[in-house]
Specification:
Chain B: GO terms for molecular function: proton-transporting ATP synthase activity, rotational mechanism; proton-transporting ATPase activity, rotational mechanism. Chain B: It holds the Pfam family ATP-synt_B. Chain B: It is found in: Cell membrane; Endomembrane system. The complex is a heterodimer of chains A (about 250) and B (about 160). Chain A is an alpha+beta fold. Helix content of chain A is about 65%, strand content about 10%. The longest helix of chain A is centred in the last third of the chain and has 34 residues, at about 170-205. Chain A is globular. The relative contact order of chain A is 0.15. Chain B has helices spanning about 5-140, 145-160. Helix content of chain B is about 95%, strand content about 0%. Classes of the chains: A alpha+beta (about 250), B mainly alpha (about 160).
Chain lengths: ~250, ~160
């Protein structure tokens, strides 16, 4: 029994309603958490939520501090916090439950015809981690990679351009491969981990009642994986950023 | 792999909006608060350092004035001791001289009384000798009666 995602065609473009739905929910959750944390924020008497968010900020500051000079990395602090919060919530969102509806050929959602892939009837999964979609994690990767190249060109142009032909001009293809491998590894690692976690949950669900202990173990492990992946993503973001903007000292 | 490309752009836009909202409404205020707290802690530390220095200076001052007071008290005691010794000496000296004076006076009195007594005794003895002599002259009859008379007057003198 396979689940498909609710897709509609609108003006000739394919839309995945579940992904859109989950992206919006994740964004709202992140914003509400952040907004709650700064509500009634004070200098001398921080609330518990404020402490939590300040802990997150310091955590990201530490990540930046390990890769580059904290003064140079200061502009990317907000990006890092937004990324780690968004990814953490997105990675864990698909874990607790699923919403599956049964649809027949010709079913509609808000007046839009659902694409059932040519089948007569299908089970549609509405609830998933947004990062379990390769396009979503690809978009986050694109933000980071484009930003690293832009920042490299803007703040460190000479060294940034020079690093493509270092140590010799013959290394240019290798350096280009390296630059292409970065975004691929960044997005596919995230997508692969979260997607695999959800597939595994689907498989375990297929075991019925016997699967409950395995499901508990796997859910716990998925929480761990989700947290680690969001950490790794932000860590690599800062590493790439530092490679682009900091010139290496040659003596 | 089935890629829904619209998701890519939707995620781009969604993250852009989320980033803008977060930095506008959440992190901006929080960063400024964290900065203020840093400032606050710095001020508090400086204040604490200042008051510690002040307390130290005051403690030093107190210590000095206490030492000064101790020294003054010691000096006063020393002076008092000195004065009292001097006074005691004076008193003893005065008492001694007074006693000597009294003793001398008493000796003088005794001497003068003795002289007076001797003088009066002499006068009496001479008078009596005259009387005895006159009696003897009156009654020069015999030796026996003379002797008797001398004895009689001598006895009178002795009994007197």
């Amino acid at each position: 029994m396979d689940h498909i995602f609710p897709e509609v065609h609108l003006g000739g473009i394919r839309f995945d309603l579940a992904a859109i739905f989950m992206i919006v929910i994740t964004s709202i959750i992140v914003f509400v958490i952040a907004k709650l944390a700064v509500r009634g924020a004070s200098v001398t008497n921080p609330t518990k939520m404020q402490n939590f968010l300040e802990w997150v900020i310091e955590f990201v500051q530490n990540i930046i501090g390990t890769t580059m000079d904290l003064k140079k990395g200061r502009p990317y602090l907000t990006l890092g916090i937004a990324l780690i919060m968004y990814l953490f919530v997105a990675n864990l969102l698909g874990l607790p439950f699923g919403i599956i509806t049964h649809a027949h050929e010709g079913a509609t959602f808000l007046g839009m015809t659902l694409d059932l892939g040519g089948e007569e009837e299908a089970h549609i999964a509405w609830w998933k981690s947004p990062t379990a979609d390769v396009a979503v994690s690809g978009a986050l990767m694109a933000i980071v990679i484009v930003l690293t190249h832009v920042e490299g060109l803007r703040r460190n142009r000479k060294h940034y351009l020079k690093h493509y032909i270092e140590p010799y001009a013959a290394f240019l293809p290798l350096n280009i491969i390296k630059e292409i491998a970065k975004p691929l590894s960044l997005s596919l690692r995230l997508y692969g981990n979260i997607f695999a976690g959800e597939v595994m949950i689907g498989v375990i669900m297929g075991m019925g009642w016997f699967g409950i202990p395995a499901l508990i173990v796997w859910q716990g492990f998925s929480i761990f994986v989700g947290a680690i992946q969001s950490f790794v993503f932000v860590m690599l973001t800062m590493v790439y950023m530092s490679q682009a903007i900091v010139h290496e000292e040659h003596h | 792999m089935d890629i829904v490309w619209s998701n890519f752009f939707i995620q781009l836009i969604a993250f852009g909006i989320l980033f803008w909202l977060l930095s506008r409404y959440a992190f901006g205020p929080l960063f400024s608060i964290m900065e203020q707290r840093k400032q606050f802690v710095k001020e508090q530390l400086e204040g604490a350092e200042n008051s510690r220095k002040q307390a130290e200076a005051q403690y030093e001052e107190q210590k000095q004035s206490l030492a000064q007071a101790r020294k003054d008290a010691y000096d006063i005691i020393e002076q008092a001791k000195h004065t009292s010794t001097k006074q005691a000496d004076e008193i003893v000296h005065a008492a001694k001289s007074e006693a000597t004076r009294l003793k001398d006076e008493a000796v003088k009195d005794i001497e003068s009384e003795k002289n007076k007594a001797i003088a009066s005794l002499r006068a009496q003895v001479s008078g009596m000798s005259v009387m005895i002599a006159s009696k003897i002259i009156e009654k020069q009859i015999d030796d026996k009666s003379q002797e008797q008379l001398v004895d009689q007057y001598l006895n009178e003198v002795g009994s007197k």
